[in-house]
Design brief:
It is a single chain. With 226 residues, this protein is mostly helical. The protein has a single domain, classed as MetI-like fold. The chain is 79% helix and 0% strand. The longest helix has 33 residues.
Length: 226
């Protein structure tokens, strides 16, 4: 019944995973920067961090993605072209725009998760690390960072699950052949709407189930000795 759509579905799954993993990595990077800004002693950085999280969390994700694709990407490309850094016909790779845009959105949620994880640490942990003369990388890499991750892992896992689902938003922009787009095209061509949309739902269900198993193992490892 799937006709010749098996290869397309496989490619759609791979694209969905690529966008999910890429945007999640970008989201973690934005989250670290955002949490550092909101926890900074400098008022300007705290204001910028708060503005970032409030704005992103208050707006629909699809709207932000459309703004990134049809406004910001073109504006930035035109700016870098106007100062001679690239050719005048330069344009960003749509896949890169999708990954960075979704990562920027997820970063707002990661910001609050990491900020809460840092605030959950007993103050004596940082003081003890300083008293031992540990450098900043060692303090955060061996003492504070692992404890923050232990508190943050469940919520970060939820962000990952959302990342796999939010990847379907790219089906409304560009020519991305992700799972949702492939299922929509296949359903339109064959009129087998129930079958192909159920198949898409099954694909996302399998991805989520596998992710939950992996996240459960990570949380169990992170909770050792706690």
């Amino acid at each position: 019944m799937t006709g010749g759509y098996g290869a397309q579905f496989l490619a759609g799954i791979l694209l969905t995973l690529q966008v999910s993993l890429g945007s999640y990595a970008v989201g973690l990077a934005f989250g670290v920067l955002g949490a550092a800004a909101k926890l900074s002693r400098r008022r300007l950085l705290r204001v910028l961090g708060s503005l970032y999280t409030i704005t992103v969390r208050a707006m629909p994700e699809l709207l932000l993605l459309l703004i990134a694709f049809y406004v910001l990407a073109g504006a930035i490309a035109g700016l870098v072209a106007s100062i001679g850094l690239v050719q005048s016909d330069f344009s960003f790779d749509p896949l890169l725009v999708a990954i960075v845009s979704l990562g920027f959105i997820q970063g707002a949620y990661v910001t609050e998760i990491l900020r809460a994880g840092v605030l959950a640490l007993p103050k004596g942990q940082g003081d003890a690390a300083l008293a031992l003369g540990l450098s900043w990388p060692v303090r955060w890499g061996r003492v504070l960072g692992p404890q923050v991750l232990r508190h943050a892992l469940p919520a970060l896992g939820n962000v990952w699950l959302n990342a796999t689902k939010d990847s379907s938003l790219i089906s409304v922009v560009g020519a991305f052949a992700d799972i949702l787009k492939v299922s929509s095209l296949a359903a339109s061509d064959t009129k087998e709407y129930i079958f192909f949309y159920s198949l898409a739902a099954l694909c996302f269900l399998v991805i989520s189930a596998a992710s939950m198993l992996g996240l459960k193992a990570l949380q169990a490892r992170g909770a050792r000795g706690a």
